[in-house]
Amino acid sequence: MTKSKDKKREKVSVASEIDLVEERRLRCQDNIEKAEFRRRRDELSDHERQSLEDEITLMNERVQNYDKELENDHCEEVMSPFCHQNSPDQSRHGLH
Fold first, then answer.
1. For residue 96, what are the CA distances in angstroms to 50, 52, 67, 89?
2. How far apart are CA 73 and CA 18, in angstroms?
3. Number of DSSP helices (H) and strands (E) in the chain, helices first
4. Tens of pLDDT along 51-66?
5. Spatial contact of 18 and 66, defined as CB atoms under 8 Å apart
6. Which residue from 3, 61, 2 is spatially nearest to 29, judged by alpha carbons?
7. Single pTM value for the model
8. Which of 26, 14, 16 is nearest to 73 (CA)?
9. Which regions of 1-96 does DSSP assign to beta strands (E)?
10. CA distances from 72 to 22, 42, 82, 91 (A)
11. What is the distance of C-alpha 89 from the center of its chain?
């Protein structure tokens, strides 16, 4: 297979991966909104409220992880050397 076909397939693969992560992120964001609505609407016991707060916190962490993954995937797709220049993970590891 030629290099141009390999490159095209690689870009399609990265684009598909980005689409999947974006879809997961949107579903998670939707679940957060539903949980926050329920928290405002329903009369919850202290235990139920805390449980719902914990669930919202976990979903927010997932959204942040999806955002990071999307940023990484986008950088790979465009192969920009500047994408991760100020990334906290790289500063921590001396990679910037």
1. 39, 38, 20, 9
2. 6
3. 3, 0
4. 999 999 999 999 999 9
5. no
6. 61
7. 0.61
8. 14
9. none
10. 13, 39, 11, 15
11. 16
